[in-house]
Amino acid sequence: MFTGIVEELGEITAVETLDDACRFRLRGPVVTQGAKHGDSIAVNGVCLTVVDHEGDEFTADVMAETLNRSSLGALKAGSRVNLERPMAVGERLGGHIVQGHVDGTGEILERKPSEHWEIVKISLPADLTRYVVEKGSITVDGISLTVVDAGLDYFTVSLIPTTLDLTTLGHKQPGDPVNLEVDVIAKYVERMLGDRAQGAGR
User: Fold this and answer.
1) What pLDDT, on a 0 to 100 scale, did the predictor assign at position 201?
2) Which of 44, 53, 127, 178 has the fewest CB atoms within 10 Å, measured from its CB?
3) Is the confidence at residue 96, as pLDDT, over 70?
């Protein structure tokens, strides 16, 4: 379980292509502290498992399903990535409940800078529209953000200087893909209400 509060901006140092997967080597001095085989680390919002760890680098295998459903397949050596370790029991929940399970990908549509913040417009897949509401939570590339405006095929977020400086959203431009994870609570509520409606119908 993650919170969507990015700990550091890491880097892909190598990509090894396998038959139906790939192996990433990533540099992240903060998230590798105390890391061991089997640990989870969120990479651009995707929960990956540490295969090997040496110094300030670790490797993680990414299966074809993950490559197809997320933007990780577009990463190459030199790509910057958002990194976060799982939340420890007893710590403050600084963002919102994030599973590291990507629901789909969006695309940066527009950036509107201002003096103290920047508004970013992101495309929204049709099957995720019902989960995104104004002032609700959404995870973009592993970053817990508040929705400013929610349209039928887009949403906007407002980014403070810290987010722009310390995450990939400070560098991505229109046309770049981003991973999206909607609020898991909304999905559970939808399922429960659907089951209740079916029960009433019977």
Assistant:
1) 58
2) 127
3) yes
Q: Is the pLDDT of residue 196 over 70?
A: no
The 3-state DSSP class for residue 128 equals helix
Tokens of 199: 């029960």
Cα dihedral 93, 97, 102, 108 in deg (nearest 10):
-60
Contacts of 123 (CB under 8 A, 6+ apart): 106, 107, 109, 153, 154
**148-177 mean pLDDT:** 95
Percent over 90 (pLDDT), the chain = 77
Does the pLDDT of residue 202 top 60, yes or no? no
Which tokens hold the place of 31? 């998230």
CA–CA distances in Å: residue 147 to residues 3, 18, 138, 202: 16, 37, 7, 37
Instruction: Determine contact, residues 99/181, Cβ cutoff 8 Å.
Output: yes
Strands (E), the chain: 8-17, 21-27, 40-43, 46-54, 57-63, 80-84, 104-113, 118-123, 137-140, 143-150, 154-159, 177-182
**Tokens for 193?**
């209400």
Which residues, other chains included, contact 143 with Cβ-Cβ below 8 Å and sequence gap of 6+? 4, 6, 45, 82, 163, 167, 169
Nearest to 35 by CA among 167, 43, 65, 20: 43
